[in-house]
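User: quick one - fold this with magnesium ion bound?
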Amino acid sequence: MTKILCVANQKGGVGKTTTTVNLAAALAQLGQRILVVDLDPQGNATSGSGIDKHSLTFGVYHVLLQTAGVAEARVSSPSGGYDLLGANRELAGAEVELVGLERRERRLEQALSKVQSEYDFILLDCPPSLSLLTLNGLCCANGVVVPMQCEYFALEGLSDLVNTIKQVHANLNRSLQITGLLRVMFDPRITLQQQVSDQLQSHFAEKVFSTVIPRNVRLAEAPSHGLPGVVFDPTSKGALAFTEFAKELIQRTSTV
Ligand code: ADP
Ligand code: MG
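Assistant: Sure. Structure tokens for the protein plus magnesium ion:
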């Protein structure tokens, strides 16, 4: 069965896009069939996959407004080895245009249902908000992967996200669950990060992935080359960690 996973955290700059793009490429390298959906008008997952976001003919925007289907709107990311439904600033308008339309939170689910059997994983890169775009993602996902930095305020924000997930689970999507929390940009030399990491583990137990993504400059450099980090420098610590994470995710999602 296809696993549809939201990569979500309402904070910006916490590593959602880096996680989405690298996880997608690592899963593809492991032979999985992957579609990435860029749900953020910033279009970072799109450009980070080597696609020029300004020259997109169709993208998520058109799919949500039903002026194109996923089959015609998707493009392939040659560098990543996966398919991509891209985004650019235009997507910001969808939010407004969807208000007032019926079943507006189900648009993505409806569109993906036509192609999802072609993929093993569909990864949704969410914007830094709990908006209608994120809600479209949560309504069609089976799981949420939450990247987080081990900082004090990270825990505070987490309870909002967990509450939103609970509400969507109760009212809109019974199959939604938290797949796991992923510690990213981790620096073991920083005591506070160790402490928050320990707190996370005692609070969320097995919901915390065992793989930890280290802070690694190669992951930050990769997008400017239009490449996922796991392709840009496969032997870097960051790339190796994402490959480990991809394996852990395959295992975790095959047992549920
Ligand atoms: P988000 O999508 O949540 O806004 P990004 O994935 O764009 O976050 O990451 C924010 C910034 O941090 C980007 O500049 C990215 O290159 C950098 N970054 C993300 N993960 C790492 C990491 N593990 N090591 C170093 N830099 C990282
Ligand atoms: Mg992002």
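One thing worth noting: The mean pLDDT is 95.
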